[in-house]
Amino acid sequence: MDTVLAELTGQMAIAFAPLMLLVCLAGVTLGILWGAMPGLSTTMAMALLIGLSTGMTQHVAVMFMLGVYTGSVFGGAISAVLINIPGTPDAVPTMIEGYPLAQRGEGGLALGTAIAASFLGNWVGIVLLIAFIPAILFLALQFRSWEMFLLATWGIAICGSMSSGEMPLKGWISGWIGLLISFVGLDAIHGVARFTFGFRILEDHISYIPLLIGLFGLTEVLKVLPQKNPPGIPSEVGRIIPPFSMLWKYARTSVRSGLIGTIIGAIPGAGANVASFLSYDIARRRAKPEERAKWGKGSYEAIISAEVANNANIGGSMLPTLTLGIPGNAAAAAILAALEMKNIVVGPTIQTENPGIIYFIYIGLIIANFLMYFMAIGLIKPCVKLFSLPRTLLMPLIIPICIMGAFAVSLSYFDVYLMFTAGIAGYILHRFGFPLAPMVLAVILGPLADENLRRALLIFEDDSIIDILIDRPLGTVLLLVVIYTFYDGIFRRGKEAGTDC
Amino acid sequence: MLARPVSFRIMADTPKSRLQTDVDSLADGKFTGEEGGASVSPGKDLAAAALVCVIGIAAMGLALDLDAPASLHTAPGLLPFITGLCLVIMAAGLARKALKRMPLREILSTASNPIGPFLADVEGRRTLILMALLLAYVVLTDLISFEIRMPAGFYTFRFSSYEAVSIPVIALILKIFWRARTIACIAVAAGMVIALAWVFRDGFEILLPGPG
After folding, report:
1. Structural domain spans, chain B
2. Minimal Cα–Cα distance from B148 to chain A, Å?
3. Is B84 in contact with B63 (CB distance < 8 Å)?
4. Does the pLDDT at position A233 exceed 70?
5. What mean pLDDT is predicted for residues A121-137?
6. How many Cα atoms occupy the beta-carbon half-sphere of A240 within 13 Å?
7. Strands A185-186 and A193-194
8. Distance between CA A90 and CA A307 in Å, rounded?
9. Global pTM value
10. What is the pLDDT of residue A257?
């Protein structure tokens, strides 16, 4: 207990240093502005800023990334409400409800509600993160090679399912191609060169950071820049701070949405988008008839349900990222990359290998949440001005950041070519309807799956399948979960879609 | 049923834009996926299935060629082989689904010119131009390397090949897509590239491509 208190106090002293607060403020501000810009997603912000974080110290980098993450998830709501374009995909429900309110002159109040809901959502996510980390870490320490292999496989499979809706097959294909990419290089057990085709540079494996930058940065530029779009129309916003009585009225919805957001966040591959959509749908079904009548025409309860969920998702996504090394979503993969670049070993041993870092992350999230609340209120009016800038002006400026970011990771120009190739491949995959998140997740989890499968098979050499199933109950449960994930994708969701897979 | 928002400014790059798909899915109470496993034409799905199948078979072949220094259980090609096999099976599933949606004969009759519709579309042509410019940008940044240092009292101004390549390329991209006056494009490109280079190089001491 004393050690915990000492660590907590130590980390608080670091986190509340003026420089840290300033860095977090910069991250939150950048995140809100980024998220507010139509077409610039949270994942894109995170992927591009990994490059910038290479020049920061460990704690500064973590604080900066947490600030950007928290800010950008909320930022999407601003453009959704004011100009009817969601800044990030998870802000679509907020757009449906917020824009009609803005047209009635209640845009400020709609945004104020979204800010309060985001603040509350972050709190739910943080509290659940703090509450569940010890239990998940304890469970994670029981995992051996077989369980780790199954967990990695499940992570890729569920990410494939969640990211591609009615076509899980496409998500799985994307993930399995990612696995093949992860095998490139010297194998960890025997040092045999795999898929290197004689190129020495490939022996050092393909780094997933340039891939992340290419797939979520350059691909987005290729998707958005060639579109012809008229400039946004700025609006007046009016009153911003919502009355407390209104927030209290929807307290039940807030708590339910917070739980949904956090749980969804903890599932690999299921990001803020899934959280806000699911929470919005459930809240609509549960709303009182008089409230349900407002749904789609400007409902404050609907805004709360979506915004609480997508922000609670942040805390939820950190849960598997920190305890198992499996990112909760693509944005969390960028956090994972930033942590690994700063030599922070995530996974079951995070507490022993990096004493105190978990507490620092908790405190960082809390600080970022408070700063998000105040900055969001302060930035609404500047954002209105920002929307008058055309995307055709903003998107080209992302290209040099992609190149600088990819190069900065290991100062190798090969990574820039890799980022470019990933960007083009990402665009082609997008045109063919394949999601990109499972690929990135698989590149991260591939080495984990590969090493652990081979170790497990060596351990099980003389055991029968029945023995393995009985002796490894945790593994058996995970195996059933993996089988169910595939079954659900192939049969149940296929039936819903009227096809298979 | 939800009331549809008045208008959208995101143009569709597939038959239905992602935004419209999301809005429709919310109205129907159906979720289309985190990234929207977009429903594309059966022809595209069939072509993708063929390519995935080739990748899977190639991976299996390459995996079988790998040395196995110890037992089969620790063979380096074990998981790559299984992954390749899974991809072949998934490709078969995707092809089956595509053929269920449209018979092969019909797919082939519409697929005589697969790139045609993409090139006929203005956005498609603009995307190809952008890809070519990006390729030129990446290659030029790699090939050209120099740095000019101008000491001015306590600060040394640095101008490297990275800025020299980035400014004209970004200005050209702005000219094509933003369509503002040339001088405005150059000014914006120069301002942004120099500011970014300063933040990375001087602010965070991160080396830039070229001489750094």
Report:
1. 1-39, 42-113, 120-203
2. 19
3. yes
4. no
5. 90
6. 16
7. antiparallel
8. 9
9. 0.80
10. 92
Of residues B210 and B52, more confidence is placed in B52
Question: ipTM above 0.90?
Answer: no
pLDDT band with cut points at 50, 70 and 90 for residue B124: confident
Instruction: Name the residue among B45, B170, B206 with its Cβ closest to that of A54.
Output: B206
Lowest mean pLDDT among A50-54, A340-344, B8-12: B8-12
Q: pLDDT over 70 for what percent of chain B?
A: 78
Q: How many CA atoms lie within 13 A of A428 on its CB side?
A: 13
Average pLDDT over residues A414-427: 94
User: What pLDDT shows up at residue A38?
Assistant: 66
pLDDT band at A119 (very low <50, low <70, confident <90, very high): very high
Optimal mutation site among A96, A291, A395, A488, interface B, most CBs of chain B within 10 A: A96
A120: CB partners within 8 A, 6+ apart: A247, A254, A258, A308, A311
CB hemisphere CA count around A462 (13 angstroms): 0
Alpha-carbon distance of A178 to A187, in angstroms, equals 16
**Which letter, b or e, does each residue of A344-378 get, where b requires 16 or more Cβ atoms within 10 Å of its Cβ?**
bebbbebbeebebbbbbbbbbbbbbbebbbebbbe
Cβ of A66 under 8 Å from any chain B Cβ?
A: no
Backbone φ and ψ for B6, nearest 5 degrees, come out as: -60, -50
A166, A194, A297 member nearest B80 (Cβ): A194
Domain that holds residue A198: 2-497
In chain A, what are the helix, strand and coil shares in percent, each to the nearest 5? Answer: 75, 0, 25
Indicate the SS3 state at residue A193.
strand
The Cα–Cα gap between A35 and A74 comes to 7
Which residues of chain B does A84 touch, with a Cβ-Cβ cutoff of 8 Å? 5-9
Beta-bridge partners for A90: none
Distance CA A13, CA A285 (A): 46
The DSSP call for residue B4 is P
Q: Specify the number of domains making up chain A.
A: 1
Q: What is the pLDDT of residues A253-294, one digit of tens each?
A: 999 999 998 988 887 766 777 788 888 888 888 888 888 888
Find the CB nearest A225 among B40, B130, B196. Answer: B130
Query: How many residues belong to chain A?
Result: 501
pLDDT of residue A213: 85
- Name every residue whose Cβ is closer than 8 Å to that of residue A314 and which is 6 or more positions away in sequence: A69, A70, A73, A122, A125, A265, A272, A365
